[in-house]
Amino acid sequence: MAKNDIVGIKKISMYVPQGIHDSKYIAEKSGIPRDVIENKFGILKKHKAAPNEQVSDMAVKAALKAIEGIDPMDLDLVVYCGSEYKDYYLFNLAARVQDVIGAKNANAFEIHSLCSAGVLSLNVLKSMMLSNPDINRVLLVTSSKETDLINYENQRSRFMFNFGDGAAAALLVKGYECNKILSTHMITDGDFAYDVASYGIGSISYYKYSVLDYDLRNLDVRNPKSMKERLDPVTLDNFCDVIEKSVEKSGYRTEDIDFIAPIFMKRSILNHILDRFNLTEENSFVLENYGHCQSADAYISILEAQKLNRIKKGDLVVMLGAGTGYTWAATTVKWG
């Protein structure tokens, strides 16, 4: 692979707010026993942003960590791939980050694919960088404050009780020969497109309500039983399929996988995936102290795994994501 055909991840950073919703808090608010929250939902604690800490504030904090020691004027592009729940409705958060961090020479835009965007954006941006001689340094940022949208009393939305607040950023550099971004594979099943939404916001509801009450602003699930019946038979296979195909498209075999950086999932599902590839929890990271920080999950997994020496030079790392709608995605990275 020629140097000009390489895009590497020079640095990954993260930010999580100080507030905490632990399993005791969630149990009290939801009426679900604490041991169920911890063992079935897979949550020990997660972070909660303060009311005056906005989605862009967290994104900027992660971004500044990712570009420490680098002149922001050298960035060519700033891209946001996080939650669509942002400071304002119909608001360009990428442009806000570009301005606040001082990346005045950079263009900015957003990629939205819900919780799969952090993984698949790597391949989108790699392609852009390799086809554009004037794009050499890209800052990818994701942030989420979706705890605001969760009503613990709404049992229809209980599969989203794991949402936690936080942000991550990755600095991508053309010609950087470490942490090389390889290939991505995705599976989308649009049958799930209407299953999860904030149903009171958008063109369908715009003319229905003169005043939008709190519940209509929250995330909700239209028919949890139906969604579960359709999702359970396919989700494990789809996770494994995108992992396998991402690795194979990258020129490797599944036997070469050293680490899977997952989206938040309870330990039992993660272990099923790891078993499929003859891996153990030492080859991954359980996000039980973070919850589901939307598209930031795989990046947090990598950072925490590095602290535990679970990722080393030369490892084949697969970043795994999934977003309602429903899209499963995996991107393979050759580490070190």
Account of the protein in words:
The chain has 9 helices and 13 strands. With 336 residues, the chain is an alpha/beta fold. It has 2 domains: 3-177, Peroxisomal Thiolase, Chain A, domain 1 (3-Layer(aba) Sandwich), CATH 3.40.47; 182-334, Thiolase/Chalcone synthase (Peroxisomal Thiolase, Chain A, domain 1, 3-Layer(aba) Sandwich), CATH 3.40.47.10. The protein has a 5-stranded mixed sheet with strand order 1-7-6-4-5, sandwiched between helices. α3 (55-66) packs across α4.
Tell me about the largest β-sheet: 5 strands, mixed
Write the element-wise H/E pattern from the N-terminal end onward. EEHHEHEHEHEEEEHEHEHHEE
Tally of helical segments: 9
Number of domains as seen in the coordinates: 2
The value of Rg in angstroms is: 19 Å
pLDDT average, as an integer? Answer: 96
Major β-sheet strand ordering: 1-7-6-4-5
Amino-to-carboxy terminus distance = 15 Å
CATH architecture descriptor text of the largest domain: 3-Layer(aba) Sandwich
Low-confidence stretches: none
- The fold-level CATH name of the largest domain is Peroxisomal Thiolase, Chain A, domain 1
Helical fraction: 25-40%
CATH class category name of the largest domain = Alpha Beta
What is the strand tally? 13
- Beta-strand portion reads 15-25%
- Content-based structural category: alpha/beta
The CATH H-level superfamily of the largest domain is Thiolase/Chalcone synthase
How would you describe the shape? Answer: globular
List keywords for this structure.
alpha/beta; Peroxisomal Thiolase, Chain A, domain 1; 5-stranded mixed β-sheet; 4-stranded mixed β-sheet
